[in-house]
Each structure stands twice: as C-alpha cells, then as structure tokens.
Design goal:
The protein is mainly α and 307 residues long. It has 2 domains: 151 residues, CHAD domain (Alpha solenoid), CATH 1.40.20.10; 144 residues. Helix content is 78%, strand content 0%. It contains 13 helices and no strands.
C-alpha cells in the first residue's frame, strides 16, 4: 500500500495502516543501511518516515484523541531528534556543494575547499557519535518496535468519516498565518515554521489523494515546489548557523575568507528564495480555510460515496 487512504477502508484503520507502514520502513532501512544507500541515506529515510507518521496523526487528531496524538507526536519527534546530528552535518556538506555547482562559472576551482573539508570532518564525528558512541540507531530501532505495537492498538475516539477535517483546516490556517508572519518579521525561524506547516499540508493531501486525484494536481505541484524552496532556504539558514558553531571556521585566513564568501551567497540565495516562495505561497494560501475545506469535503464525499 502507499501513503494514502484506500477508498473502502475506515478512516481509523487507514491511518493505523499508513503509520505502521512508515514505521516498518524506518525499521527496515535502519536495520540494513548498506542495502539502503548507506547510513546517511538510511537516517534520512527514517527521519522522513517519522515526519509522515506525525503528519498522518496530526491530520486525524480527532480520530484517536488529543492526548494520544500529542504523546505519539512527541515520541516520533524524539526519534527524529536522536538521529538529527549526522543529518544536519551532512546537509551542511550538501548545501556547500549545491552552492559550488550553482556558481561554478564564477567561483575558482578550489572555492570553499577548506570549509567543505571542515564540515566533512564534523559529519564523520557526528556519525561516530550517533552510531557508535551513543548507539542512537540501535536505541531508536528498539523503541520503534514498541511504537509500532502502540499504533496498531490506537483506540478510535471519533468514528466520523470526516474526522480528518479539523486537522487539515488547522494546518492550512497555520500555514497562512506562518507565511504572513515570516514576511512581516523576516525571521528565518518563521520561514522554517511556514515550511513545517506547508510540509504537513503536502502530506495531508498525499493521504487524501484518492479523493481529489486529478482535481487538485496543480495545487499539489505548487505545494511540492513551495516545500522544496523553503527546504533549501532552511538548509542555507542552518549552514549559516553552523558557520558560527565552531571556532575552526575562523582558524585560518583562508577559512575566514571562505566563510565570508559563503555568507554572501547564503544571503543572496535566501532573498531570491523568499521572493519565489512568496509567489507560490500567494497562489496556495490565498483562499480562506473554509473554502479549501469545503472543496476537499466535496471531493471526499463523492469518492467515498462511490465505493
């Protein structure tokens, strides 16, 4: 099965199935990283699975009750945080590489060589800390098996076939508000908050896709583009912060020069990305939450009614 509801399955059963499948995926990739692109890719895929679990539960928070939603949401956030260190350092290396590729025509061949080597070294240490010293992968894998059993037994509090509507409406409303606040206060943290809400909305539409397939394709593509743009914006912001996290980034004149040059590119790209995100956001969040929800409810009712 895929990350979407089946037309004939009860809502609660479908969400249990979806979340368990995501947990199974995380367990599988962490158990055999070599067969799944290496430890970096395995950690990345596992953390994405945790986010999908949290998003599915957020969509249907009325189905299982607020208390259980919060408990499981916090638990899967902790799983992601336990594996965050190697992913953050890997993203720093990848982001520098992206900037090198994007400005290859104007950068000297060895541009950012020392800074990239520094973050590669930090990534190696982060992997050792997470995998070997702290045994975080082993601990998370063990806890995932317990979490899987809990998800299969989540009791249904709201049996309504439309119990997903509150979760989606809240995420859409928060996305609109986060967008406005990000541009009003020009804060990287607020852009990150907007990205989180947009990502939840993207996952929510994935779960409901069977009901609207063909009708909201354009909106889904725009939402995909928006989360990619805001994702790179966040990567740049995170790299900017990591440049201040270690004295090693200013240990030599070459590194100080590279850090200054990186910051010029980071600032310029963030301005460009914010402009691009605004255009996409205005197209996606211009409607009131009630109007968006009414359209989805109509699609859902027609789809489920034809089962």
């Amino acid at each position: 099965m895929s990350y979407r509801l089946d037309r004939e399955e009860p809502l609660a059963d479908g969400i249990r199935r979806i979340t368990v499948e995501q947990v199974d995926r995380a367990i599988r990739v962490l158990a055999n990283p070599r067969a799944n692109g290496g430890i970096d890719e395995a950690v990345h895929e596992a953390r994405k699975a945790f986010k999908r679990v949290r998003s599915a539960l957020r969509l249907t928070r009325r189905v299982f009750g607020e208390k259980r939603f919060r408990a499981e949401n916090d638990r899967f956030r902790e799983f992601g945080e336990a594996l965050a260190l190697p992913r953050e350092s890997a993203v720093a290396v990848l982001t520098i590489g992206t900037l090198q590729d994007r400005y290859r025509s104007i950068l000297r061949p060895a541009a950012f060589r020392e800074m990239k080597a520094h973050f590669v070294e930090r990534h190696t240490v982060a992997l050792w800390q997470t995998v070997e010293r702290d045994e975080a992968v082993i601990r998370v894998s063990r806890r995932l098996r317990k979490a899987r059993r809990r998800l299969t037994r989540l009791p249904t509090r709201d049996h309504s076939d439309l119990a997903w509507t509150l979760g989606l409406k809240q995420v859409y409303r928060r996305g609109r508000r986060a967008m406005g606040e990000a541009y009003q206060f020009s804060s990287p943290d607020l852009f990150h908050e907007w990205r989180k809400q947009a990502k939840h909305l993207r996952y929510h539409l994935d779960i409901l896709k069977g009901s609207w397939a063909g009708e909201l394709d354009a909106a889904a593509r725009l939402l995909h583009d928006l989360t990619d743009v805001l994702g790179f914006h966040h990567d740049l912001t995170d790299l900017d912060r990591q440049l201040d996290a270690s004295r090693a980034t200013v240990a030599t004149r070459r590194r100080r020069e590279e850090r200054a040059a990186l910051r010029v590119l980071i600032d310029g790209n963030r301005i460009s990305l914010e402009s691009e995100a605004l255009e996409l956001g205005l197209r996606l969040f211009s409607r009131k939450p009630s109007g968006v929800l009414d359209r989805l409810v109509r699609c859902w009712s027609d789809w489920r009614g034809s089962a």
